Amino acid sequence: MKPTTKPIISGIKEVGVPAERIIRIGDNKGAPYASDNFWAMGDTGPCGPCTEIFYDHGDHIWGGPPGSPEEDGDRYIEIWNVVFMQFNRLADGTMEKLPRPSVDTGMGLERISAVLQHVNSNYEIDIFKTLIAKTAEIVGATDLSNKSLRVIADHIRSCAYLIADGVIPSNEGRGYVLRRIIRRAVRHGHLLGAKESFFYKLVPTLIEVMAEAGKDVKAKQTNVEKLLRLEEEQFARTLERGLSLLDEALAQVKDDVLSGEVAFKLYDTYGFPLDLTADVCRERNITIDEQAFDREMEAQRTRAQAASQFGVDYNSVIRVDGETKFEGYTEVESQAKITALFYDGKSVESIEAGQSAVVILENTPFYAESGGQIGDSGYLSAQGVTFNVKDTQKYGQVFGHIGELTQGSLKVGQSVNAIVDAKRRHNTSLNHSATHLLHAALRQILGLHVVQKGSLVSDKALRFDFAQPEAITKEQLSEIETLVNQKIRANFPVQTDIMDIDSAKAKGAMALFGEKYGDKVRVLTMGDFSIELCGGIHAKRTGDIGLFKIITENAVAAGIRRIEAVTGQNAIDWLHNQQRILTQSADLLKSDVNTLVEKSNNFKTKRRKWKKNYKV
């Protein structure tokens, strides 16, 4: 506390707290507002002094009060924190007083539970005690104080609730956080001697001990268990080999530092998150050269970027004030002014014929890639000028028209006619509407656990990734395709409404987990069958889609499957091609299409007998 908080100390005394139970910390780090008891969100932003409330578990436990040499003991445990939010720290370190100061307070629920249940550790409270006992039973452990049991009990709760909320193990974002937690738990099970998948078996016990708070997990129990089992089985295939490699490397470590190159190989080849490798190293008092690891990671990103379509990463280059006004919901052609030009990774004032560049416009009918829908193509024109737009991307709040100037020159401030390839846009819009129908059909036939995990919508086809823990049968796939085509023939109007996010959710609109939405959202409705939040371009009616045909279905990751499909004329062309292949196959076997399967089976039987008789 700072000297100005003396009145607070007096107030604490007035409610009966003895003076010896009040510990003043002050600016204990050698500078104003530099204290163990000064809380900040980061280097900048709201901040203020804080006070912490500790519970004394008694002198039978080793440890001293905060600020004493024994403060790391377990006798005194912080159960509550109160921040007096009164300053805003600027980038130069200046502290501004907030116009409306506040008190930000929070307590540790599990620590309060430990106090109320008269135990000395969070892991001894009823929830964790039951989970620890069940884990020990499953893996055959006898020492209930083993740290690995505590790690697993803690992690099963985190993982189950993340999956119930729609997170799927993956290699990026929140999906990678989940994968890291699961793999850390699996590794601790390995330490305990687990010989087979065990983690998913804790879900029923978790639901039981969480009672009313476990109803969300219970509603999706089957999916939670399947995803945990799949992820554990997938990691088990590389865990042994990875640990063997790590043991070999640790045996050769010098100066107690594991090379970043080895840590990166474990990450890249064997799926070992860095923090899992760090756990193993920490147990042997070894650190990791994280700078070398970061260099390896950056080198991999550079290689990936060099192999991409565009050598320059304009995401880190384009910085333009203002925003591009999008007019593409109603227009495919607009007059627009150039606000910026980028060539060869740099901002320029003009470009000449033959140069590839990114053109930023004040307003545009071009849709920038987002929500899985590809960016528009087309061209920009003026007197004696043609710029072929091959793609459109969004950089912050501005739209970048990526392409090549084939005629004339362009300069900042110049007006151009922006013209979208209308046919390509139309075909793309049909495929985008089809993905919404597909999503709704998947949820109706496979279950409400199905949520979108990615998509790619182009003018040629659509690709849809979704959460589904097990393979889809041919019968289910046929049902899905039939249902989508039924809704196409129903010719529902595709209705768009703008409303606030809460109203949209109340209406039943599906929001993608993790997506950021503004105060107002765009809600797309297709009859009584599909309602989703979406900012993309769509058909006017479902009947415009014409025909929907699934061409492939397969797994792309643990718990994630992918459907690729075509619509409209592309679907008709695909069916014609399949018919042509069938006809040619029938001709080869001197059959007709209707008896082709029978003829093929007869041919296989004869060939098998021939190979047997002649021992080929």
Description:
This is Alanine--tRNA ligase. There is one protein chain. A hairpin with a 3-residue loop joins strand 21 (520-526) and strand 22. Helix content is 38%, strand content 25%. The protein has four domains: 3-59 and 79-105, no CATH class; 122-252; 322-420, Beta Barrel (Elongation Factor Tu (Ef-tu), domain 3); 426-574, Threonyl-trna Synthetase, Chain A, domain 2 (Threonyl-tRNA Synthetase, Chain A, domain 2). It is globular, with a radius of gyration of 31 Å. It is of the alpha+beta class and 616 residues long. It has helices at residues 6-14, 109-116, 126-139, 147-164, 173-191, 203-210, 215-219, 221-251, 260-270, 274-283, 290-306, 422-446, 474-489, 501-506, 568-588, 596-614, and strands at residues 38-40, 45-56, 76-89, 95-107, 257-258, 287-288, 325-326, 333-343, 346-348, 350-352, 356-361, 363-364, 378-382, 385-395, 398-407, 409-411, 415-420, 452-457, 462-467, 494-500, 520-526, 530-533, 548-557, 560-567. The model has no long low-confidence stretch (mean pLDDT 88). It has 16 helices and 24 strands. The strands form seven sheets. Strands 8-11-15-14-13-17 form a six-stranded antiparallel barrel. A four-stranded antiparallel β-sheet has the order 1-2-3-4.
